[in-house]
Amino acid sequence: MGTELGEDCPDTYVFSPFIKREHWRNRQTLRFCMLRAGFAPFDGEWWHFSFGDREWARYFDKDRAIYSQLSFSMDKGAETTSR
Description:
- By secondary structure, the protein is α+β, with helices and mostly antiparallel strands.
- It has one domain.
- 27% of the residues lie in helices and 12% in strands.
- The chain has a two-stranded antiparallel sheet with strand order 1-2. Strands 3-4 form a two-stranded antiparallel sheet.
């Protein structure tokens, strides 16, 4: 794919013009498959896709996300949903 997973450099962008042609094609294949499966891409990181969150909703022009964001507390494992 041209970079390591999680690497922080300009070549992590999906459409980086500086990666090998083979890596560029692999990234486009991954993107195509993930889009067909309903995931929304994040072009800043070739490995980053979303499903059901607000980024997904924005990409697919949905009224709202499927999943809400969770807020976590360090108090005895308490978990609350923020809306």
